[in-house]
Amino acid sequence: MRFALFLALAHLRRRPLQTALALGGVGVGVAVLLAALSLANGFTHGLVRATLKAYPHLVLFRLGEGLPPLPPHPEVEASAPFAATKALLVRPAEGARGPGVDFATLVGLGEGGEALYPELGLRLKPGGIYLGAALAQSLGVFPGEDLTALSATQERVRLRVLGSFRTGNYLLDSGYAFVDLASVERLSGAKAQGYQVRLKDPFRAKEVGEALAGTRFFPQAWQDTQRTLLEQLALQKRVLGVLIFLIVAVAALGVANLLVLKVVEKVPEIALLRAMGASRLAVGMVFAWEGALLGLGGVALGNLLGYLLCLYLSWRPVALPGELYFLTHLPVEMRGEDFLQVSGASLLATFLSALLPALRALRVQPGVVLR
């Protein structure tokens, strides 16, 4: 084993340019893959954070008549009774402006509702409404103007526009509005449906929901209602990882090509070693060690380059056009599991690529070559 390692190191030192190119190919592929996954993580985190600006971490729907009090829980930051309904919002024509009409989901919040969405800066008043930015633009309405909300049962409620909010999630910004609970109750004819809850850690929503539900509430965590979004983002990350991993695969094929050429070049030396008593396994291990060393060195270099690249992108983030994306800059979120998975997959690809030259070296027949 030590003899094979000694020869492998000697071979790699003898051709420094080829060795450096092989290491660089694997390293660059690993670095690009790590940077892409970190950017995908940052994009996902940014979209989830934008969604949770105007979406409850946890909803507890009442199961019986009346609204029972919410039991205390150390994870709960804020809670408020709520009711939601669909309504047609109408702004009457005024002067040169035509009328504005659009459908929206009206979320009525009771006492303490402003604390559920601190980033939106809600200051709810009776008869007031906060509109998503895209919804306000569609209606052509400004703060201080009046709207009429019509329900499916032809109930009408007049609302004064108090302001607008922007989360960055277009589905929310174009279809949601916040009002006081009494306005929704007048529109829908129903009482409060349950509680909306804000948590210290939104990713514990399912666990906290089960603890608070009991027999009085039906819990619904944001991960359940936003499952399609989360699955799409996870699929996007997997597809991106597979596509960019092809760079690593190409680099691994380059390592295999380098080692195959070395085997062809050193057939006389292999035959001589075999004639001097070296076993087939020892000869094959020389080229297996070369592949392993190139793989380990390339992955180590790729991890270093990927980490430095992610640090640079965190320091100087890529700017995004604000009119197309909800993020003005592309965030970076490095995760240890990504580094481990990419390193493992890259090492495996490089090791497998070294099998072909090792097997070719095993098939060299010293008697035929020396003759």
What are the key terms here?
371 residues, alpha+beta, 2 domains, six-stranded mixed beta barrel, two-stranded antiparallel ribbon, 12 helices, transmembrane, lipoprotein, cell membrane, membrane
Q: Can you describe what's shown?
A:
It is found in: Cell membrane. It holds the Pfam family FtsX. This protein has 371 residues and is of the alpha+beta class. It folds into two domains: 2-49 and 229-370, no CATH class; 58-222, no CATH class. 54% of the residues lie in helices and 19% in strands. The chain has helices at 2-14, 16-51, 133-139, 170-175, 181-188, 205-213, 222-225, 227-265, 267-275, 280-315, 336-362, 366-370, and strands at residues 58-62, 76-91, 100-109, 128-132, 146-150, 156-165, 176-180, 194-199, 217-221, 318-319, 329-330. The strands form two sheets. The protein has a six-stranded mixed beta barrel with strand order 2-3-7-4-6-5. A two-stranded antiparallel ribbon has the order 10-11. Strand 2 (76-91) and strand 3 form a beta hairpin. Helix 1 packs across helix 10. The longest helix has 39 residues, at 227-265. The two termini are 28 Å apart. Mean pLDDT is 82; it is low at 367-371.
Flag low-confidence runs: 367-371
Count of the separate structural domains: 2
Distance between the termini: 28 Å
- Strand count, sense and closure of the main sheet? 6 strands, mixed, barrel
Shape: elongated
Indicate the structural class.
Answer: alpha+beta
Figure out the total of helices: 12
Q: Give me the Rg, rounded.
A: 32 Å
Order of helices and strands: HHEEEEHEEHEHEHEHHHHEEHH
Strand order of the largest sheet: 2-3-7-4-6-5
Indicate the percent of residues in helices: 40-55%
Q: What's the count of strands?
A: 11
The mean pLDDT is 82
Q: Beta fraction of the residues?
A: 15-25%
Keywords: Cell membrane, Lipoprotein, Membrane, Transmembrane, Transmembrane helix
Main location: membrane
Domain MacB-like periplasmic core: 19-213
Subcellular location: Cell membrane
